[in-house]
């Protein structure tokens, strides 16, 4: 691998020459998302990703495939299990260059339908679910899409076309929980994505055994281990905020990545569909205890809990519980006591603009 050198206080510092080759270009992914989503003008002037001085927003690279996690779901409401799955997937996927994630909340009518099927009455609007995901500002690696499911394919097409026009290849990979990928039911090519990433961070998977091994899917070849990727780690190190601030950190960053990434990828496995080898399932096992939390549980707590105790009850399980509680207290009629007593028909939480 070619090396580049510079001198600091008379001492030569070298690092791999992988960012300055003639065919290597980079660009911020957020700019392309903003253009595809808002068009020529961003009415709210909102950044897609965190632009803080200590943060490094996701970067597209021209000489490799740039993968984006697509995370669809009801998120009614979002909880820490959802976030744990997303965070674990991003942290364990440097080898395939997953640079960011886009969260795709289901449309309101589908969420209401699911609630009614469960005999529950609480359905937060897409706008509110997006706001809970976004919290109080943009994030380093993920962004919540606020358009409808019907508009998603057009948005994705615009994003892909704009990136490709400038020489950047973008590929989406679906993030799913074990409730969506099981031995008896695999919906191949979900959301027009050939690759599926699944983890048991937030619930157990039916294809894992008590010994920690994986059961083979009937439609797939045997599971294969994923190995640590030195080249991917080098790229990650030389594009990090710490490296850009001071290239002397390169060796330290590489040592950290070797330690962290090897421990994360050594247990990752992948299997390929026999009939269509481009279709694959990548499994990232949980590290530590599984986070057993569900939106159904949170909705039950909201229905049954006294208003004064609601935020305390939700603080360790809901994502941005203070925002969630604000929606509940401001927009749901209460007649004393718990919420359940005041509900006779399904409620859809909506902002006054809806």
UniProtKB/TrEMBL annotation:
This is Cytidyltransferase-like domain-containing protein. SUPFAM superfamilies: Nucleotidylyl transferase. InterPro entries: Rossmann-like_a/b/a_fold. It comes from Capronia epimyces CBS 606.96.
């Amino acid at each position: 691998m070619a090396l580049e050198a510079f001198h600091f206080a008379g001492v030569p510092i070298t690092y791999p020459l992988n960012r300055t080759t003639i065919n290597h270009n980079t660009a911020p992914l957020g700019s392309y998302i903003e253009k595809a989503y808002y068009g020529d003008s961003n009415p709210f002037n909102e950044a897609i990703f965190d632009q803080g001085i200590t943060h490094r927003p996701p970067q597209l690279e021209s000489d490799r495939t740039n993968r984006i996690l697509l995370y669809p779901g009801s998120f009614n409401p979002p909880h820490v299990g959802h976030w744990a799955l997303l965070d674990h997937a991003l942290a364990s996927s440097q080898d395939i260059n997953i640079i960011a994630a886009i969260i795709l909340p289901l449309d309101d009518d589908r969420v209401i339908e699911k609630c009614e099927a469960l005999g529950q009455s609480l359905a937060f609007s897409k706008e509110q679910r997006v706001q809970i995901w976004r919290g109080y500002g943009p994030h380093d690696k993920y962004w919540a899409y606020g358009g409808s499911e019907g508009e998603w394919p057009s948005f994705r097409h615009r994003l892909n076309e704009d990136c490709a026009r400038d020489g950047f290849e973008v590929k989406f990979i679906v993030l799913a929980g074990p409730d969506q990928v099981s031995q008896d039911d695999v919906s191949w090519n979900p959301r027009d994505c050939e690759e599926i990433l699944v983890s048991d961070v937030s619930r157990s998977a039916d294809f894992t055994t008590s010994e920690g091994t994986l059961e083979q899917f009937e439609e797939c070849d045997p599971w294969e281990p994923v190995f640590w990727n030195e080249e991917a780690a080098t790229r990650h190190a030389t594009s990090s905020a710490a490296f850009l601030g001071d290239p002397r950190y390169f060796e330290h960053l590489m040592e950290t990545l070797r330690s962290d990434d090897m421990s994360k990828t050594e247990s990752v496995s992948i299997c390929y569909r026999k009939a269509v080898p481009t279709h694959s399932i990548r499994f990232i096992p949980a590290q530590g205890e599984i986070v057993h939390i569900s939106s159904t549980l949170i909705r039950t707590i909201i229905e049954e809990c006294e208003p004064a105790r609601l935020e305390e009850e939700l603080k360790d399980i809901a994502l941005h519980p203070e925002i969630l509680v604000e929606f509940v207290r401001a927009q749901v009629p209460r007649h004393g006591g718990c919420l359940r007593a005041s509900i006779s028909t399904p409620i859809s939480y909506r902002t006054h603009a809806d």
